[in-house]
Amino acid sequence: MYFDYNATSPLRPCVKKLLSESLDLFGNPSSVHAYGREVRKHIEHARDQVGTYFKRPSKHVIFTSGATEANNLAIHAHNGPVIISEIEHDSLFVFQDRPHTRILRVNTDGIIDLSHLEELLTQTGSGTLVCIMAAHNETGVIQPIPSILDLCEKYESFLHLDAVQSIGKLSMDYSKIYSITCSGHKIGGLSGSGALVKSSTLTPKALIRGGGQERGYRSGTENTLGIMSLGCAIEDVQNDDFLKISRRINRFETAVKEFAQGNITIFSEKVGRIGNTCNISMHNVKSELQLMNFDLKNIAVSTGSACSSGKVKISRSLKAMGVSDDLASSAIRISIGFGTTDLEIDTLIEAWKDIYTRISPHSTPKENVCQAVV
Fold first, then answer.
1. What is the predicted pLDDT for the residue at 363?
2. CB-based burial, 246-276: b 16+ in 10 Å, e otherwise
3. Residue 370 among the catalytic residues
4. For residues 153-159, average pLDDT
5. What is the pLDDT at residue 370?
């Protein structure tokens, strides 16, 4: 059973159908003959689908290999000061040492410190690029985007929004956002597909140069099937019953809180989160041990972001929130999606209870940790 949708999502049924019908589709979209024109037609249809979702002209959609490349494209396009929150994705946070870059604090719930943002904007002046993740990939925390936009407008600055985890989960007005990042495999499309959705005034500098594809913003023959899958997924995600998904996470959280009697922590529990994500600490039980026990039950969960070459390490985002190393080292992330069933949630609850009973030092009676792998 799969509870790691924030790392990557299974392919949506509509995407599977589209791909199966398109396996015989070939041709270079830059070719002028009929085969090339047919492929180009499908790419431009996907561009329309992405543009429609964000209510932007399709010509403002630049297809990339994913969100990491899109974030890099956005930040390299900006010559002025940059503000990056301390809980951003590594593809943005890696620029922390770039000249004229400031790091924005978050509070203990993982929400942007708006007072600190205003303070930084007064220091950097107009033309600053503010980089914010709309919904956090590890905790699910939703940022106050309207308030952040108000500050950007007040100080004549721009907002770059990492919308990877918020697509289909949050209702949002994207009209005033300078640039937006999305990823195909996070919403049920293929890996290797993503996009940067830009404003009319943004002119990115190509990171990959050569043939001048994507209107000169990204050279290289387009990933036709990946792009088509992104378009299909971003259109279909709007049909998800996200209220039902949220109720399933709530049911899991309620059950384990009652069972553990205070010996767990659900991070950012009291603030707005996207309803598919739970970041939870089983006190004094290492994340790796929990992960191994779930895996032995054929249940996939994670220890947080899956974007660090498979490393298991203490979350930088949890540390930024002031979480102690001991508590952060016992955190796992559970994230669900369109394919998760009530029966799977029931199984997850029972598995969590069993693991807690066997390996938590707080369980009664206490069990030997060595039993964890039996």
1. 80
2. bebbeebbebbbeebeebbbbbbeeeebbbb
3. no
4. 97
5. 40
